[in-house]
Design brief:
Blueprint lengths: L1 E6 L6 H13 L2 E7 L11 H12 L8 E6 L3 H7 L4 E6 L2 H17 L5 E5 L9 H9 L10 H11 L1
Parallel strand pairs: 1-2, 1-4, 2-3, 4-5
The protein binds coenzyme A.
Length: 161
């Protein structure tokens, strides 16, 4: 089974890594799909930087040889077929997020009836975590060490300088 885990990953957090590790437990192959730009968000890192950070952060993860990081710029429904995927994986942190994600999932299925989605409940330790929260804490010089991989921490420090 090939699973796609899509996102902006601006930047990747420990919450995302937890979902990828868990996806590797049931999928033979996991494609981490890095969207070029989320139309509603202004990014901090370029797509190339986000991919580089993911690559570094995931290099030590068990099963990383069954994982691939790919960039995409169009619809997830189309990228799904390009990857020959069987399922999309989404991490869910709250009921509000589920409602939002369910609407996206239904829209994706409308466009591609083959597309199935598996929702994984976020690790309780990560329910508060998002890329925006990490960026805000870092912008004020707060400690993000427990929230992101080391490479992200230093990349964010470099961005601030
Ligand atoms: N742990 C910690 N944080 C998590 C998380 C987890 N398990 N899961 C999600 N997050 C965070 C992300 O960091 C992100 O934070 P931010 O809003 O501060 O940046 C936030 O939760 C939202 O994540 P997500 O819903 O995954 O948004 P995204 O922008 O990362 O990805 C896509 C959204 C890529 C899946 C979606 O935009 C997409 O499919 N785009 C392609 C175009 C398309 O097909 N659009 C039509 C869809 S109907």
């Amino acid at each position: 089974m090939t699973a796609i885990y899509p996102g902006s990953f601006d930047p990747v957090t420990n919450g995302h890594i937890d979902i990828i590790r868990r996806a590797l437990c049931f999928a033979d192959h996991v494609v981490v799909g890095v969207v070029s730009q989320n139309v509603y968000k202004k990014g901090m890192f370029t797509q190339e930087e986000r991919v580089g950070l993911l690559r570094e952060a995931l290099s030590g993860v068990d099963g990383s040889e069954r994982m691939e990081i790919r960039e995409f710029s169009g619809l997830l429904a189309e990228f799904f077929d390009e990857c020959g995927a069987d399922v999309v994986v989404r991490g869910i942190r709250s009921p509000i997020e589920y409602e939002y994600d369910l609407a996206q999932t239904l829209a994706n299925r409308q466009m591609n009836p083959r597309l199935e989605t598996i929702f994984l409940p976020a690790n309780p330790a990560h329910v508060f975590l998002s890329s925006s929260i990490v960026k805000e804490i870092a912008a004020f010089g707060g400690d993000i060490g427990a929230m992101v991989p080391d490479c992200v921490q230093s990349a964010m420090r470099n961005k601030r300088q």
